[in-house]
Amino acid sequence: MIDRDALKTYAAELESADPARIVRWAFDEFGSTLTFATSLGIEDCVITDMIARQSLPISFFTLDTELLFPETYALKDVIEKKYGISIKAVKPQHTVAQQAVHEGAELWLRNPDHCCELRKMQPLREQLAGYSAWMTAIRRDQTPERANAPVVGWDGRFGLVKINPLVRWTAADVQAYVHEHQVPYNPLHDQHYPSIGCVPCTSQVMPGEDPRSGRWRGSEKTECGLHFVKPTKR
Ligand code: SF4
């Protein structure tokens, strides 16, 4: 049983800790009941590298909506080969074609919240069941909703502990780590895609635009729901 008060103490103690040390702490604390949800973004690649450098046997999964960019699928293969790991592809109950039959074609255009629920949230809930803690690569400066994310805290929406080792880092910190450690990352990041999700809901971001403005462009939606409830751009 997790002591929620202890989590606040851990969060305070780890607030200024090096992210690699936070990753190590998470494994020491939760062992095989810890899992890392990688969205294969550049921050996720950094955490993957930190796990691999410490030879930590942490399980990896990614939410495969079957609508990801070819570059994202190719990166998954590259990462698995480079680090000798296996990233479980967690898929929705229905294929895109089946979803079109049940919900109509291109649900993401008409009701992206429901589409994210079917293709991300439901599979995530099922995947996290049975784990005591999950680790993600969110940063506080990505969205207003993430501004107060703790290093470690209780995730009441999914009923387990959530660890965010990179919350204090900036995009420049991430870039510096990637450069210094030669971490593989999605080439789309160098083609005006700072944030990469599903193909239908991701567009290029031009200089001067908010880095997340390419997600669900033209709508109020700002998060897919994995990290925060409904503020309408993950
Ligand atoms: Fe559907 Fe778009 Fe959400 Fe992907 S990001 S699950 S395509 S609404």
Name the bound molecules. Answer: iron/sulfur cluster
- Average predicted confidence as pLDDT: 93
Number of helices: 8
CATH superfamily: HUPs
Shape annotation: globular
Helix/strand structural class: alpha/beta
The total tally of domains equals: 1
Q: What percentage of the residues does DSSP assign to strands (E)? A: 5-15%
CATH architecture classification: 3-Layer(aba) Sandwich
Major sheet size, sense and barrel closure:
6 strands, mixed
SSE string, helix = H, strand = E?
HHEHEHEHHHEEEH
Unreliable sequence segments: none
**CATH class category label:** Alpha Beta
Describe the protein.
Helix content is 38%, strand content 10%. By secondary structure, it is an alpha/beta fold. It has one domain (4-201): HUPs (Rossmann fold, 3-Layer(aba) Sandwich). The protein has a six-stranded mixed β-sheet with strand order 3-2-1-4-6-5, sandwiched between helices. A hairpin with a 4-residue loop joins β5 and β6 (160-163). It is globular and about 45 Å long. Bound molecules: iron/sulfur cluster. The site of iron/sulfur cluster (SF4) has 13 residues, from α7.
Task: Give the topology, please.
Elements: H1 4-14, H2 19-30, E1 34-37, H3 42-53, E2 59-63, H4 70-83, E3 87-90, H5 96-103, H6 107-110, H7 112-128, E4 133-135, E5 152-155, E6 160-163, H8 171-181
Parallel strand pairs: 1-2, 1-4, 2-3, 4-6
Antiparallel strand pairs: 5-6
The structure holds iron/sulfur cluster (SF4).
Tag the structure with descriptive keywords.
234 residues; alpha/beta; Rossmann fold; six-stranded mixed sheet; 8 helices; 6 strands; binds iron/sulfur cluster
